[in-house]
Specification:
Glutaconate Coenzyme A-transferase; 6 helices; CoA-transferase activity; 8-stranded mixed β-sheet; alpha/beta; single chain; Succinyl-CoA--3-ketoacid-CoA transferase; 3-oxoacid_CoA-transf_A; 231 residues; NagB/RpiA_transferase-like
Length: 231
């Protein structure tokens, strides 16, 4: 098997340059590639197009890249937890494509599956559908949506092996598996790295064929976006 391990996040992200299109896994703050985001911040790459379900929060996750004006365009579904995102959007500093969450997921999945376009009813008759091709199927109207692909997909897994096979844990699975298939170069940071052959093949969520680089991450904060308690 091909050994896809790189020494650290610096080596993994060395060729990400200004203007790159990047997918970043995660939902809210759950399952985000914390080490990769920190390295993008350190590298100070600019004019990024980021494809992510959301834009992090003020002061953490993708919110850090927004604060440093490193993001040119966001392609997202939900962005309501980030005041800086809102400010940049309303001031015209940031290009934004807001997409229904299911459509975003399917556009990414289609990108990984090699399906250039598909029809969906989501968004028909709303601003989402302005300028898009429509077609009727069985008496219902649908919008034509196109795949999403990226120069780099940055994903975070619970466990991975040296061949790039990945296992995600619980809800941290979210957008990570489909994004792993849709990047020209997929980079995985993992909490635990084991030799190839140690993972149960029946438990693998992302086969190593989709992953070009894997490294063991460090110092995960795993912040909770909203802590809710019952009295």
């Amino acid at each position: 098997m091909i050994d896809k391990v790189v020494a650290n996040v610096q080596e993994a992200l060395a060729d990400i340059a200004d203007g790159a299109v990047i997918m970043l896994g995660g939902f809210g703050l759950c399952g985000i590639p914390e080490n990769c985001i920190a390295e993008l911040l350190r590298k100070d790459v600019k004019k990024l197009t980021c494809i992510s379900n959301n834009a992090g929060v003020d002061g953490f996750g993708l919110g850090l890249l927004l604060q440093k004006r490193q993001v040119k365009k966001m392609i997202s579904s939900y962005v309501g937890e980030n005041a800086e995102f809102e400010r940049q959007l309303l001031s015209g500093e940031l290009e934004v494509d807001l997409i229904p969450q299911g459509t975003l997921a399917e556009r990414i999945r289609a990108g990984g599956a090699g399906i250039p376009a598909f029809f969906t009813p989501a968004g028909y008759g709303t601003e989402v559908g302005i300028g898009k091709e429509t077609r009727e199927f069985n008496g219902k109207m649908y919008l034509l949506e196109h795949w999403l692909q990226a120069d780099f997909a940055l994903v975070k897994a619970w466990k991975g092996d040296t061949a790039g096979n990945l296992i995600y844990k619980g809800t941290a699975r979210n957008f990570n598996p489909m994004m792993a298939t849709a990047g020209k170069i997929t980079i995985a940071e993992v909490e635990e790295l084991v030799p190839a052959g140690e993972l149960d093949p029946n438990q693998i969520h992302t086969p190593g064929i989709f992953v070009q680089r894997v490294f063991k991450g460090q110092h995960y904060e795993k912040r909770i976006e909203h802590r809710t308690v019952k009295i």
